[in-house]
Specification:
Jelly Rolls, 8-stranded mixed sheet, binds 2-oxoglutaric acid, binds fe (ii) ion
C-alpha cells in the first residue's frame, strides 16, 4: 500500500544527460528514487534525457490515429482480424461492446531490433510475445524510424533507472542486466476518444465518475508515461482518495508495476491508478479530439528469471505476463483473445 500523499513528487533526472555520472550523484538519485517508489510508487520525472519533446511525440501519435480506420485495421491484431498473423503487436480498435469505461484505441510496438530467431519459445503459444512489429505503409505514415528511435531512448532511460533502483535495494549494479536481454518492452500509443455528451452526463448506477481506463496497477517492472494536457490521470493514496496527476509541462510520469513490487519484497509500491474520461465533444468521432497518452512498459525477456526477495521462488517473466494478460481489458475473452498454449505449433 502506498502512503497518504496529496500530490505526486517530482524527481529531477537531468544528471542522467551526462555521459559519465559521478558516484555521489548516482547515490543521491538512487536514494530519491527509492524514497518515491517506497511511498507514492509514482512520480514526475523532469529534465529527462530524451531527444524528443511532448509536441513531437504527440504530433506523431495524432498522425497515426488520424489515419483512415481501414488503414489502421490493416495492422489489427489477430483477435480483431482473424486472417492476420500478428497476435501481440499492432493496432487494437475501440471495443464498444465491452465496458464503456475502457474506451480506447491503441497501437503497440516492441523492440525494433529484437532477434526474432528460432530459439524463442514464444512460437508454441497462441500469443507470440516476441513477434516482429507491424507498420503502416510509409506512403501513409512517415514516422516509423523516429518512433523506433523513441522506443530505444525510452529503453535506455528505463535501464538507467533500473540500475539506480537496484543500487537503492542494495543489489549489485548487474542485478538487472539480464532483464535487458531480449526485453519485451512495449511502447503503446493510446487514444481515448471523447464520449458523447449524453454518456458523460449519466454515469452508470453506483459509479460517481465516468472513466476511460478503469482502476488498475501495471503488471510489469516500470512504466514511463507521456500524457497530453487533457488531464484525467488519477492515483490512489493510502486513504482511498483519488489524487489527480495533471500534465506538467516537459515531465513524464513514472510508476512501479506489480512484478517490481514483488521482486523488491514489497519495498516498492505498485499504486492503483485510473483515467477519467476526456471532456465530451460534439464531434465525438473526430480522432483529433480526446486524450492521448503514451505509456512505455519496461518488460524483461520472456525467459528471464527474476529472483523474489523474501520468497523461495523465482518468476519467469513470460509465465507472469501471460497470467496477467487474462486480466487486461484488451485481452479479455470476449475480445477474442485466448492466452493459453496451443496443442500444436
Ligand atoms: O492513459 C494514461 O494516462 C494511463 C494509461 C495506463 O495507466 C496504462 O495504459 O496502463
Ligand atoms: Fe497503467
Amino acid at each position: 500500500m502506498s502512503t497518504k500523499f496529496s500530490s505526486l513528487p517530482v524527481v529531477d533526472v537531468g544528471a542522467l544527460k551526462a555521459a559519465e555520472v559521478s558516484s555521489e550523484v548516482n547515490a543521491e538519485l538512487s536514494q530519491n528514487l527509492y524514497h518515491v517508489f517506497a511511498t507514492t510508487g509514482f512520480a514526475y520525472l523532469v529534465n529527462v534525457p530524451l531527444s524528443f519533446d511532448h509536441d513531437e511525440i504527440f504530433d506523431l501519435s495524432r498522425e497515426f490515429f488520424t489515419l483512415p480506420q481501414d488503414q489502421k485495421m490493416r495492422l489489427a491484431k489477430k483477435s480483431f482480424r482473424p486472417s492476420h498473423s500478428n497476435t501481440y503487436r499492432g493496432y487494437f480498435p475501440t471495443q464498444l461492446h465491452l465496458t464503456p469505461d475502457n474506451l480506447k484505441e491503441g497501437f503497440e510496438i516492441g523492440n525494433p531490433t529484437a532477434n526474432h530467431g528460432p530459439h524463442n519459445t514464444a512460437k508454441t503459444q497462441k500469443i507470440n510475445l516476441s513477434e516482429t512489429n507491424v507498420w503502416p505503409d510509409a506512403t501513409v505514415f512517415s514516422k516509423q524510424q523516429r518512433l523506433e528511435q523513441m522506443y530505444n531512448e525510452l529503453q535506455d532511460l528505463s535501464s538507467k533507472l533500473l540500475s539506480l533502483l537496484a543500487t537503492s535495494l542494495g543489489k549489485d549494479s548487474d542485478f538487472v542486466s539480464s532483464w535487458l536481454d531480449d526485453s519485451l518492452s512495449t511502447l503503446r500509443l493510446l487514444h481515448y476518444p471523447p464520449v458523447p455528451q449524453a454518456a458523460t452526463q449519466q454515469p452508470e448506477q453506483g459509479e460517481s465518475v465516468r472513466l476511460s481506463c478503469t482502476p488498475h496497477t501495471d503488471s510489469g517492472i516500470l512504466t514511463l508515461l507521456h500524457q497530453d494536457a487533457t488531464g484525467g490521470l488519477e492515483v490512489l493514496n493510502a486513504a482511498g482518495e483519488w489524487i489527480p496527476a495533471p500534465y506538467i509541462s516537459g515531465s513524464i510520469v513514472v510508476n512501479i508495476g506489480d512484478l517490481m513490487a514483488r521482486v523488491s519484497g514489497s519495498r516498492f509500491k505498485a499504486t492503483m491508478h485510473r483515467v477519467r474520461a476526456p471532456p465530451p465533444n460534439p464531434n465525438s468521432t473526430d480522432p483529433r479530439f480526446g486524450r492521448f497518452s503514451i505509456p512505455f512498459f519496461f518488460e524483461p525477456g520472456e525467459n528471464c528469471v527474476l529472483p523474489v526477495e523474501g520468497e523461495e521462488g523465482e518468476v519467469v517473466y513470460g509465465e507472469w505476463v501471460r497470467k496477467k494478460m487474462s486480466t487486461f481489458v484488451e485481452f479479455q475473452e470476449d475480445s477474442g483473445y485466448d492466452t493459453g498454449t496451443t496443442e500444436e505449433m
